[in-house]
Amino acid sequence: MTDDLGPLADSGRFHEPLALDATDVASVRQALRLMLRIRRAEERIADNVATGVIRCPCHLAIGQEAAAVGVAQHLRPSDRAFGAHRSHAHFLAMGGSLDGLFAEVLGRDTGVSRGMGGSMHLAARDIGFYGSVPIVGATIPIAVGAALAAHMDGRGDIAVSFFGDGAVEEGSFHESMNMAASMQLPILFVCENNFFASHMHISLRQPSNRVARFAEAHGIEHATVDGNDVIAVRRALEKPVSQWRQRHGGPFFLEAVTYRWRGHVGHRDDLDVGVARKDDLAAWQGRDPIQRLSDALVGAGHLAATDRDRVDAEIRAEVDSAWNAALLAPFPAEGELLARVWAP
Amino acid sequence: MTATTQRRSYGEAIRDAFAYLLASRPDVFVMGQGLWSPWYVGNSMTDLEVEFGKDRVIDVPVSEVATTGAGIGAALAGYRPIVVHPRVDFMLLAVDQVVTQAAKWRSMFGGGSGVPMVIRAIINRGGEQGAQHSQSLHSWFAHIPGLHVLMPATPQDARDMLIAATLADDPVLYMDDRWCYELEDDLPPVGDVSIQDIKPIRRREGTDVTLVGCGHSTQLNLEAADLLAGVGVSADVIDLRALNPLQPSIVCDSVAATGRLLVVDGDWRSCGLAAEIIAGVAEHGVMQKGNVRCARLTHPDAPAPTSRVLEERFYFTARDIVREALALVRA
Question: Which of A72, A114, B33, B271 has the maximal Cβ count within 10 Å?
């Protein structure tokens, strides 16, 4: 096969610290903090899925934090992003609150979706996160519509559609790519290619593991990057985002090659349900997006090892506090079942 | 015709609604297949793209899912899009976007993500078009919490319901019927209409039998009521107009008075609107007063045929309604 990802798909590669280049250190340190926050929050969720405290299905993005953060660092609150089933990371990367996320996965009234959505239905319009849903590919055309609205508004805002490598097998994806390209809309398509759709490896689902070939078919500019390298993700988007802010340019497609450490759903790793990926998983854990970034920052003298530990401790305290508050939050009132079906 | 009314066909009345909305509301735009070649949609959208521009009356690729989803996204981002599907049958490709997305976002996200969009789907049947160019399926969609379903039976309703749908803060499936396009009426001046005011109404008063329908079936019921009057039977004709949320109290009141209910519905029988109306009347307690008789007239439970001979068996007429009504009255 010639049209494939090559070294990017090799779990034994890219284990070394990230190359910082002339990167803005302050924002990279911020990226590290955001990724750690996602990691610790999702670990807390995983622990509570394991014990049954959380009942709703939770799809965790542990190991995939860099794509969410690298994209989010280009966004502003007037942009409009859409996610899918595995979107805690997108929500948190865009500045979503831990309190709102934890309360939501616990079905509490103080959740971001007022306890009506759970893990798979998050929305926070104030930060530009318009909604995530678990029907595969369903938000891709919705994001195209939000891009059409941004185009009509003419203020340089953009839409972002996050999805995985399974979604590119849906018709909604191709209809949306074609429409966005033919209308030249300001939309960023982000495919986090983690090689799995549920239990099925991409090699069993597609003739090539390089998803960006679909962008070529639809005449859309694209980049394929190491999705566990937050700096590479950010750099790939600099040009299209700056064009969009000046009200130029059509869609852009980013393929972020990554890997999820947990299973399709829940706290386990899917080795328990017979997915043969033990060696691959161990190797990919060596391509840890957080470790590689923090090692780079420490190695270059931009971050003291003690500061790294201090930041982690601060985030763990933040997670503790938000989790404990969510456990005490009220459930939705019974009347809410019918009260929110129609506009008031 | 008085100085303040205008003679309009059903199709022209729909175009009047589009023109009113596009002129008065900068947040309204329209998109769908065939909009720059409006023979797709009869005379209901002629030259709108010339009058209002191709950036507000948008023709789209052959992509029902993307077009419908894009309507949702634009609605979430502050617009009031009207997505046009020139035929119900093709809209079915986009059922996820209608049923699982548009109708659910408000409730599912805790109330803050309403989807103020219109999905206009045109019922276009007959003429030997066959099984895949004939469906209505309004009962399916009326089953969905969070999705308004409106079916206009008259030129004024065709205009006013499209306006009400567009000004509503929730998704609305607006289903007009090509078999009504030549109907004419004198219409009062156009203006804003609230979806709260779109309720079932009595189109004709009567005492012997209640005829219930929506859309084109209401026109057949009115025709049948004329024929029934000729044989001394007085029919009370109720036009449902809004199928979801359904408000059947006027039907119950009518049946309490007439004691006979015939529901006429241009869709299939099994698990359909006609069954829902009769169930609503039963739950209301009207039946307990004794001697209430109910019947339904629908399409037979088969895909629509092409051959004209079979089409005549498939689609009911006013005469069929008269036959069923007389059977109820004389039983």
Answer: A72
